[in-house]
Design goal:
Helix content: over 70%
Shape: elongated
Order of helices and strands: HHHHHHHHHH
Strand content: under 5%
Number of strands: 0
Radius of gyration: 20 Å
Distance between the termini: 67 Å
């Protein structure tokens, strides 16, 4: 049947909407496996990735997000990159998570610059970039060197780097890394001595 891929997609979608995730996953998986060139396969792969992510099954989630990431210009690309970074982090691969989040932020910055040149706004992407910047503090805290954090965040962000460094310093303090917190607060105080 030439419309079987469409039927599988809508069956998967409807079963997900009805709350029967097991049945919906069966249809989406069949679509992904049997019709890899279908125009519905990206959306199906994303739905499968989200299903596995929500169930904390990081490896299958990463597998399906990777299928979406093959299509750099698809509307789900950036969000899949963001969620892949989180899946990597949750599965203990902090260095990979950090690199993916950096890629998301840098790509967002490039797209924002392009949008500005063309005189258009990129609001939804801007929100995702802000989420990425907020979350990268957590990823950096896991593997980054506190002494290198000021240079890292100034290179990564065009502005407000000290805000992220301050968040990192407080995070270190909350997690008991008092040496890391001290290093960062020692940097921050001379940079802005009147800050609360």
């Amino acid at each position: 049947d030439e419309k079987m891929d469409q039927e599988l997609f809508f069956l998967g979608y409807n079963y997900y909407e009805l709350g029967n995730l097991k049945k919906g996953t069966e249809f989406y998986s069949r679509l992904s496996k049997d019709y890899p060139r279908s125009p519905y396969v990206i959306e199906a792969n994303f739905a499968l990735a989200e299903y596995y992510f929500e169930n904390e099954k990081w490896e299958p989630a990463k597998k399906y997000y990777a299928q979406v990431l093959r299509f750099k210009h698809h509307r789900l690309f950036a969000f899949s990159l963001y969620k892949t970074a989180w899946a990597e982090f949750r599965s203990g691969h902090s260095a990979r998570a950090l690199k993916l989040m950096e890629a998301l932020i840098l790509q967002g910055r490039q797209q924002a610059a392009q949008a500005e040149l063309e005189g258009r706004k990129n609001i939804s992407r801007s929100r995702l970039d802000n989420e990425g910047l907020r979350d990268i503090v957590l990823f950096y805290a896991d593997i980054g060197d506190p002494a290198k954090a000021p240079d890292y965040f100034h290179n990564l962000t065009d502005k407000n780097a000290d805000d992220y460094i301050e968040k990192l310093a407080y995070y270190y303090g909350d997690k008991g890394n008092l040496q890391g917190a001290r290093v960062l607060f020692t940097y921050l105080v001379p940079a802005d001595p009147t800050s609360p």
